[in-house]
Specification:
single chain, about 80 residues, mainly alpha
C-alpha cells in the first residue's frame, strides 16, 4: 500500500541531499534507514534498562560485589 505525503520543496531538497550524502538512492531508502536505526536504538535502550534492573537485583541480593581485577592479575601471574 502506498501513501502520498505533501512536504515543502525545501524539506524535500534537504532530504534528497541527506540521502545522497549517505550513499542512498532515494528519500524512501533514507526514511527506511532512519526507521531501522530508531528500532535498533529502542532495542539497545531496552537492553540497557534490563542490565540496570539485573544489576539492581544482584546488589539487593548480594550487596556490593568485590572487584575481581586483583584476582585476575594474580591468576595471570602464575
Amino acid at each position: 500500500m502506498s501513501r502520498t505525503l505533501t512536504i515543502s520543496d525545501e524539506l524535500y531538497i534537504h532530504l534528497e541531499s541527506e540521502a545522497q550524502s549517505r550513499g542512498l538512492d532515494s528519500i524512501e531508502r533514507l526514511l527506511d534507514d532512519w526507521w531501522q536505526r530508531e528500532g535498533d536504538l529502542i532495542r539497545r535502550k531496552d537492553v540497557v534498562r534490563r542490565i540496570d534492573a539485573l544489576r539492581d537485583r544482584l546488589f539487593a541480593t548480594y550487596g556490593e560485589m568485590p572487584d575481581s581485577i586483583d584476582l585476575i592479575r594474580e591468576d595471570r601471574a602464575r
